[in-house]
């Protein structure tokens, strides 16, 4: 049995792993490469395997760096089933359709043909098969798998794979993206005790989140109060999926309990609005606290002075409302979307605040802003950064080094090997060293295209 790292190796994005047994070929995730230009160009390159030979796919969650290349996989001949949780399937449609629309606009401006079409997205959706947590499925005679809650986004999975080979059963666990517990709405990541091999993410493999005594909600309260007192605009670049809903959930609590001033709050993202509505379909996936609030009759995503600006015209009207105000918009890394219009307007304003609540990939505008640059280029225009820039690591959706080691520590020994994936090179290597030193388990940081025998 072989494992080939076709993405997500010494990079956070482009997650794609190929497993080859004597009888079956299958992949885990099929994501877009995001970040630097060198990474993103990989999205135009051929797959390093033949999509027509793949029997099925297992999907850990709906973020584009895990599902974004599925339309191209189908376009190039994949016809197998795609297994995912019900929330992942519904969110995948929204995210893939949005990505397809953005790609079409981008390629039209460049006067080139898009890699995929809306028809390819529809073909992907027809291949999805819903699978609930903790239900073992056997898609082929020698392979079975079980999904467990990863606590990263709604419907996200840790995947436990069992492969029969020569009368023996090997168990491989893919962590997916592990959540940073405790997180609003989400449950604690499941603990797995037995495996021969583990693929573990390492987005924050070289650092610890700042576990202040105050919670993320308290920090959010402080930033809002300080920005409002200055009379500025609070801009929050946010992923449409999960982070926006978590912010709404906490803003709802802060406002209903009179802890922050009543200022206008704008959700300036059509995709985030659609996803927020979809969340209401999956309240049974919420953690106990959020579920209890829903059962009490509280609409956890609604409160006074909240405005959903779906159309372009509604978005432009936000400019007519004087600060103080709160604007939550995509993209989460400031690489596009409506947030960059607001950043152009308010980054030069020392009264305003840019609050970063998401991972910022190498090479993105958000990463440069988080690192404290004082001048950035947006729409070919130089923009001075005089606004306060605040990064709240408490909102990270990924476990830090300590959280990753704690999760790995629940596996019973002996583990044959841990593959450290889904992280930038320095982060992956740092975690690999800690795994060897602290857990006494062999670890490997694979490179793109590397193949290993299990």
Automatic annotation (TrEMBL):
Q: Does the keyword Hydrolase apply?
A: yes
Keyword line: Hydrolase
Keyword hit for Hydrolase? yes
Which Pfam families does the annotation name?
Beta-Casp (PF10996), Lactamase_B_6 (PF16661), RMMBL (PF07521)
Q: Show the Gene3D superfamilies listed in the entry.
A: 3.40.50.10890, Ribonuclease Z/Hydroxyacylglutathione hydrolase-like (3.60.15.10)
Domain Metallo-beta-lactamase positions: 13-232
Domain named Beta-Casp: residues: 244-369
Highest taxon, organism lineage? Bacteria
- Recorded GO terms, molecular function? hydrolase activity; RNA endonuclease activity
In terms of InterPro entries, this protein maps to: Beta_Casp, MBL, Metallo-B-lactamas, RibonucZ/Hydroxyglut_hydro, RMMBL
Under what name is this protein listed? MBL fold hydrolase
Whose protein is this, by species? Candidatus Portnoybacteria bacterium CG10_big_fil_rev_8_21_14_0_10_44_7
